[in-house]
Structure prediction request, 117 residues.
Amino acid sequence: MRGTDRGRKLDVGEQQAIRLNFRLSEDEADLREQGWMSGATWRDWSGSIRAQMGREPYRRLWAQAIEDSDFKPDYTFRHLRILCGPGGETYGPRQRRPARCASRAKGAVQRALGVMP
Prediction:
């Protein structure tokens, strides 16, 4: 979507694709909170999310999405509101469950099988 906002109006499909990207980004933060994503992966992804959200047309559509979600709380963007707000560069959803990410799971399986590298 880079450069799609230069001098022309986005069509409905392009706007929808960007709004779906907001939901995907929120879902990624949910995965981190649930322990399915490592801290290193979250740092990479969250930096990319913040960078993209700061560019047009994302910035403009994000402002609209926030306004829309204030009136229709079915999708509130709990994580993205913090991540894309002031001080959001340090935001990392707190894991509610023990880490389940692949790197930890692999080590647990190896220990359980008695196979260590």
User: Anything to note?
Assistant: Residues 12-113 form one domain. DSSP finds five helices and no strands in the chain. Residues 68 and 74 are 10 Å apart (CA to CA). The chain has one domain: 12-113.
